[in-house]
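> call design_seq(struct)
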C-alpha cells in the first residue's frame, strides 16, 4: 500500500439482502467509516440504491452500482444506465466484474463500452480484471489481465478521466481461496506498469484494488503489498462486523 494513494475498501453486496438488511449494512458501514482514514464504498443491489443513498448522505461512505449498460438508453430490458446510477447518487460503478463477464457473458468490448458510458455519466469506473484458474494454469495470467485492462483503458477520453482498477482472479472470488500476497503483488505490478506505458502520472496515482476471498484475517497481508491500494470485498462485506473491521 502506498502512502500517496488513499486505500479504498469497497463492499460488493451482489444480489443479496432485503431492503431492511441493506439499510442495516449501510448504517454499519457509515459508523465504521466515521473514524477510518481510508475511503469506503458500498455496492448495493440496484433496487436499494436510492434508499442506501439516503443513509450514506453526509457520510464518508460512497455509493456504487454493480454494473451499467453499454448504451445510454433504449430497449434493453432489465439493464440500468450509467446516467441512472449517477442520478441515484452513485460515485462509482463496477465495470466487467467477473460475474458479469462469466455468468452474463460480457465481452471485453461490452465492458469497454460500459466504461465509456460510466465516464460520460460522470461516474468513476472500477475496471475489474482477472484470470480463470485454467488461464493461470496455462501461464496466461499476464496476457489475460493486460488484455482486459487495455480493452477498458482504450475508452478513457483523456488523462483527467477517473479510473480505479480491481484485480480479481476469478478462481479466488467466493471460493475462500484468496490469492497469495505474492501473486497479487505480481499481478498489480504488471497492471501498474501497463498503465505507465501510456500515462506515467496515472500509473502513480491509480488505485489498484485486490479482490477475491478477502476477509478480516487476510486483508492486512494484502494491504502490506506496495501496489495494493485497497480491496473489493464480496462475501465478507455482508457481515457488518467483518466489513467494519476491514
Ligand atoms: C467480489 O465479488 O468482487 C469478490 C471479491 O467476492 P468475494 O470477496 O466473496 O470473493
Amino acid at each position: 500500500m502506498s502512502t500517496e494513494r488513499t486505500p479504498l475498501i469497497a463492499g460488493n453486496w451482489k444480489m443479496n439482502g432485503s431492503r431492511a438488511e441493506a439499510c442495516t449494512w449501510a448504517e454499519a458501514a457509515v459508523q465504521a467509516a466515521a473514524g477510518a482514514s481510508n475511503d469506503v464504498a458500498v455496492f448495493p443491489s440496484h433496487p436499494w440504491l436510492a434508499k442506501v443513498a439516503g443513509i450514506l448522505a453526509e457520510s464518508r461512505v460512497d455509493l456504487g452500482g454493480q454494473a451499467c449498460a453499454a448504451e445510454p438508453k433504449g430497449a434493453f430490458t432489465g439493464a440500468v444506465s450509467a446516467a441512472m446510477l449517477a442520478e441515484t447518487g452513485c460515485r462509482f460503478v463496477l465495470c466487467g466484474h467477473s460475474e458479469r463477464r462469466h455468468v452474463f457473458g460480457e465481452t471485453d468490448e461490452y465492458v469497454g463500452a460500459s466504461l465509456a458510458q460510466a465516464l460520460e455519466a460522470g461516474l468513476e469506473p472500477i475496471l475489474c480484471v482477472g484470470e480463470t484458474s485454467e488461464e493461470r494454469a496455462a501461464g496466461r495470467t499476464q496476457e489475460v489481465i493486460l488484455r482486459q485492462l487495455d480493452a477498458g483503458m482504450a475508452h478513457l477520453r483523456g488523462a483527467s478521466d477517473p479510473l480505479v482498477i480491481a484485480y480479481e482472479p476469478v478462481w479466488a472470488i467466493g471460493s475462500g481461496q484468496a490469492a497469495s500476497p505474492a501473486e497479487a503483488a505480481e499481478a498489480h505490478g504488471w497492471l501498474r506498469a501497463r498503465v505507465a506505458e501510456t500515462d506515467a502520472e496515472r500509473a502513480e496515482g491509480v488505485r489498484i484494488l485486490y479482490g477475491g476471498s478477502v476477509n478480516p484475517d487476510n486483508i492486512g497481508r494484502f494491504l502490506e503489498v506496495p501496489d495494493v491500494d485497497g480491496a473489493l470485498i464480496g462475501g465478507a462485506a455482508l457481515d457488518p462486523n467483518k466489513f467494519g473491521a476491514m
